[in-house]
Amino acid sequence: LKSKVGFKGIAKKVVLFLLVGVAAQLDAAMGSNSAIREATIFFFMGNELLSILENAGRMGIPLPQPLTNAVEILGGKSKQNKGDVE
């Protein structure tokens, strides 16, 4: 493993926690009932789950077909979106 890859991963996690903190502060400032914070957390949970499922598939771990289909659909959309931006 390269140290740059590891550092990038750690930096992403730090930013993730900072964004959750910012979302919590927005909730407090707006007087909402933790809706922004929870939405932020669920977004990142979904993103991490997708990454775990993709890596499990690459390792050859058998996954239920509906999960495999969902990973292919969501992974394809993110790759298409990245292609459009560049």
UniProtKB/TrEMBL annotation:
It holds the Pfam family Phage_holin_4_1. Keywords: Membrane, Signal, Transmembrane, Transmembrane helix. It is a multi-pass membrane protein. It is found in: Membrane. GO terms for cellular component: membrane. Residues 1-28 form the signal peptide. InterPro entries: Phage_holin_4_1. It comes from the Bacteria. Belongs to the bacteriophage holin family. Cp-1 holin subfamily. This is Holin. It comes from Bacillus thuringiensis.
